[in-house]
């Protein structure tokens, strides 16, 4: 299971990397923090918000739990979509930009084709998952892109 814990949007604990999270009972765990063994105590759990409040190394933290889907959404830059607004478009996979179908200043609607990305000899049409106006195009036709790379910024 791959879970990532984000503490105060700064500290990350990846459960896949920490096989040493050993339950002690009563909501307490042994774990590594900054290379030292410490006891983490779960104070509260909010399943609806995917958050846990823990006490770790003498400090209380509110921890956001991210599963694989949450991590993928964040990598693709889709976590900031609210009320149909789109802030940015990131490459969902590594590939080469074959065509850019929009330009700065253009109004974008949900489902609109934005660009064509070639990956593994297949053409993939990247579509808008929200609405916005193109403010900047960070790539050029023919450019190689990495997974998660910023492609288009929106206002």
Which class best fits the helix and strand makeup?
A: mainly beta
Number of helices: 1
Biggest beta-sheet profile: 7 strands, antiparallel
Give the helix level as a range of percent.
under 10%
Separation of termini? 36 Å
Query: Uncertain spans, ≥5 residues at pLDDT below 50?
Result: none
CATH architectural category of the largest domain: Beta Barrel
Brief summary:
The protein is mainly β.
Structure description:
With 155 residues, the chain is mainly beta. The chain folds into two domains: 4-69, no CATH class; 79-154, OB fold (Dihydrolipoamide Acetyltransferase, E2P) (Beta Barrel). Helix content is 5%, strand content 52%. It has one helix and 15 strands. The strands form three sheets. The protein has a seven-stranded antiparallel sheet. Strands 8-15-13-10 form a four-stranded antiparallel sheet, with no helix packed on it. Strands 12-11-9-14 form a four-stranded antiparallel sheet, with no helix packed on it. A hairpin with a 2-residue loop joins β3 and β4. The chain is elongated.
């Amino acid at each position: 299971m791959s879970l990532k814990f984000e503490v105060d949007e700064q500290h990350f604990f990846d459960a896949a990397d920490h096989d040493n999270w050993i339950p002690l009972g009563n909501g307490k765990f042994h774990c590594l923090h900054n290379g030292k063994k410490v006891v983490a105590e779960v104070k509260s759990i909010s399943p609806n918000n995917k958050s846990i409040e823990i006490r770790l190394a003498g400090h209380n933290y509110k921890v956001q739990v991210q599963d694989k889907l949450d991590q993928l959404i964040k990598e693709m830059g889709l976590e900031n979509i609210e009320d149909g607004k789109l802030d940015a478009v990131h490459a969902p996979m590594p590939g080469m930009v074959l065509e850019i179908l929009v330009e700065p200043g253009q109004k974008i609607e949900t489902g609109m084709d934005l660009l064509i990305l070639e990956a593994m000899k297949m053409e993939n049409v990247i579509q808008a998952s929200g609405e916005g106006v193109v403010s900047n195009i960070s790539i050029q036709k023919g450019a190689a892109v990495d997974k998660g790379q910023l492609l288009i910024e929106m206002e």
